[in-house]
Amino acid sequence: DADCVVEENYLVEIEHAFRNNLKLDAASIYFEHSIDTLNDEFARPIIEYELHLRYLVHAQQWCGHPCAYYTVGSSMAIRRRGYLSQGGMNTRSAGEDFYLLQKFIETETFFEIRTTTVFPTSRISLRVPFGTGRAMQQLALKAEAHWLTTHFDIFKEIKPLFDSLEEVWKRCNEANSDMTYEKIAIICSLSDEVMSFLGKVNLRDILFELTRHTSGYPSFRKRFFRFFNAFQMIRYMHYMRDHAYPDVEVQIAVNSFFHHTGSIHSDTALESLQRLRRLDKEI
Q1: Contact 221, 164 (CB under 8 A)
Q2: Distance (Å, rounded) from C-alpha 201 to C-alpha 234?
């Protein structure tokens, strides 16, 4: 974006990364929203918003979803050939970066560049219905408000399905398999709310269809996550939010994540953000 600042090595590192990944077409570049020059009124909203973004990616990676990456429009790069092969950017008024990058993520032609940094500007904007500008507008004008995000239990409840996927495939692959939703729930130890969502998206029929059209577990797993992709994950998160676990303040959710990953509790959102930034930079 025109109002972003980048590190001096920005162009050099992008060229170097793509030369070293000749078969890959799109990348997400490490980013940090600029907060050092902001007063407390405007620093808190952007800290909580970026913390929300990083928490969602880390929580999805923790539960085993392979499509969990940052899709921030101001910190992405795409080869010309890949851009043309996907028909270019769509004409949506928002989220066009997410929709485009997901195509590369699902085809496994996507990677991350962590050797340089983009610093998106933290400013209020009403141009689009979500994103940095909208987040600033929502929180900066409400002194006592905190950013709400997905309850960590929503990720805890779907993790057993992803962890047990190979066993599910084996059962579906058996001759005369009579896999039912009840057996899926037992094999994966899934709650009634999760099973309700899986029923709505016809998971059982999808599993048998994928089994018939794949030759082994690796191809089955790849096809499964093309069905249960980032869009389906969002649908699941929204369903669970509406039926079981309402959104919570982002610092509460992040500390639940830290607790389940063996990390020390963070006292402030800034401390949590700095910890997740370090993890993202070091991976």
Answers
A1: no
A2: 13
| CA dihedral for 129, 135, 141, 147, sign (positive or negative) | positive
Q: How far is CA 120 from CA 31, 38, 152, 252, in A?
A: 7, 13, 27, 25
135's tokens: 């987040």
- pLDDT, one tens digit per residue, over 52-85 is 999 999 999 999 999 999 999 899 999 999 999 9
Name the least confident of 2-16, 111-125, 173-187: 111-125
As a whole number of Å, the CA-based R_g of the chain is 20
Q: Rounded CA gap, 258 and 62, in Å?
A: 11
Rounded Cα distance, 148 and 173, in Å: 42
pLDDT averaged over every residue in the chain? 90
pTM for this model (two decimals): 0.91
Residue type for position 172: C
